[in-house]
Amino acid sequence: MQNHQVGLVIVFLCCCLVATKSTPLSVHDDISDSDESAAFSVEKQPQRNPLLDNDSDDSVDDDDSLYPFDDSRLVDDPMGAMERHQRVHDHNWDVLIFTQQWPVTTCYHWREDNPSQECTLPQKKEFWTIHGIWPTKLGSLGPSFCNNSAEFDVDKLDGISNRLETYWPDLKGATSQEWLWKHEWQKHGTCAMLIEELDDELKYFAQGLSWREQYIMSRILDASDIHPDSNNTVTVINNAIVKVLGKNPSIHCLFDTKHEISYLSEIRICFNKSLELIDCDGVKLGDAVSIKYPGGNVTTNCHISSLVHYPSLVPTPQRKREWKFPLVNVYKLLQFLMWFTL
């Protein structure tokens, strides 16, 4: 009988030592109200790890550390070495990819990956920000870093720096703002210099601001009643954009494997060398694929048959922590149980 009781004591102690607690999800940073989603009027229009970013542009660009929960990488293939060689030595490109990101999803990803990561959301509500302008070859990646000797002169941006801080911010905070602009210029701007309209820092970043002001993504989505906190299929989102722009975009999601939720992350639209809006068809975007569906074609990394969540809240990541059980308390409990079983 005593042996049985001692056995139960040992099992009980083991359970105590390995027990853990987890903190529940909480939410903050509600940005469901809208400043930019007022009725959208179309002025003269120039006429998608799994799930799926992340980063991004190394999904095409993906600025190395910016995005996804589930970073999907390119599948190795026999042409990989040749393609990498071409990206390094061939600086020509066919299209410009203008990428807007949904800051809530970006911040959610960062905090899921690193709970201590600082993330500063825009003060305005329902506000998409610029990720970048990426010169890209059809059917390939890049080019990037086309002039390693190029210097970045932030002083050239003095006249537009306030607008850049609003529309092209580093969500990690103001202290790294200049670093982001320098990175975007050296990685992508030095390749965009191929055309006169983008051949210096001021022209490159000013063009991003111009496109951001012309293609206000919250208004484009609002025209089809798509707002934060809604769930829609990627085809519905694609149709909403095509309805306004008349061109096929590329829609990118981040997939939270822990909770099995797809989050709307980035929307990319494309331009030719004459800066005219064109379809993003034929652009290789990492894990994005072109999918035909009744009524259209969508380039995306989002699950075609699943709902995509357009979040308005940044949940605090679920974290696990050990239930600390001081050794002295274990000793006292053991002494008591031994006495109790005598």
TrEMBL record:
<keyword id="KW-0456">Lyase</keyword>
<comment type="similarity">
    <text>Belongs to the RNase T2 family.</text>
</comment>
<keyword id="KW-0325">Glycoprotein</keyword>
<dbReference type="GO" id="GO:0005788">
    <property type="term" value="C:endoplasmic reticulum lumen"/>
</dbReference>
<keyword id="KW-0732">Signal</keyword>
<dbReference type="GO" id="GO:0005764">
    <property type="term" value="C:lysosome"/>
</dbReference>
<feature type="signal peptide">
    <location>
        <begin position="1"/>
        <end position="22"/>
    </location>
</feature>
<feature type="active site">
    <location>
        <position position="188"/>
    </location>
</feature>
<dbReference type="InterPro" id="IPR033697">
    <property type="entry name" value="Ribonuclease_T2_eukaryotic"/>
</dbReference>
<dbReference type="Pfam" id="PF00445">
    <property type="entry name" value="Ribonuclease_T2"/>
</dbReference>
<keyword id="KW-0540">Nuclease</keyword>
<protein>
    <submittedName>
        <fullName>Blast:Ribonuclease Oy</fullName>
    </submittedName>
</protein>
<dbReference type="GO" id="GO:0005576">
    <property type="term" value="C:extracellular region"/>
</dbReference>
<dbReference type="InterPro" id="IPR033130">
    <property type="entry name" value="RNase_T2_His_AS_2"/>
</dbReference>
<keyword id="KW-1015">Disulfide bond</keyword>
<keyword id="KW-0458">Lysosome</keyword>
<dbReference type="InterPro" id="IPR001568">
    <property type="entry name" value="RNase_T2-like"/>
</dbReference>
<dbReference type="GO" id="GO:0016787">
    <property type="term" value="F:hydrolase activity"/>
</dbReference>
<keyword id="KW-0256">Endoplasmic reticulum</keyword>
<dbReference type="GO" id="GO:0003723">
    <property type="term" value="F:RNA binding"/>
</dbReference>
<feature type="active site">
    <location>
        <position position="131"/>
    </location>
</feature>
<dbReference type="InterPro" id="IPR036430">
    <property type="entry name" value="RNase_T2-like_sf"/>
</dbReference>
<feature type="region of interest" description="Disordered">
    <location>
        <begin position="36"/>
        <end position="63"/>
    </location>
</feature>
<dbReference type="GO" id="GO:0006401">
    <property type="term" value="P:RNA catabolic process"/>
</dbReference>
<feature type="active site">
    <location>
        <position position="184"/>
    </location>
</feature>
<keyword id="KW-0255">Endonuclease</keyword>
<keyword id="KW-0964">Secreted</keyword>
<keyword id="KW-0378">Hydrolase</keyword>
<dbReference type="GO" id="GO:0033897">
    <property type="term" value="F:ribonuclease T2 activity"/>
</dbReference>
<feature type="compositionally biased region" description="Acidic residues">
    <location>
        <begin position="54"/>
        <end position="63"/>
    </location>
</feature>
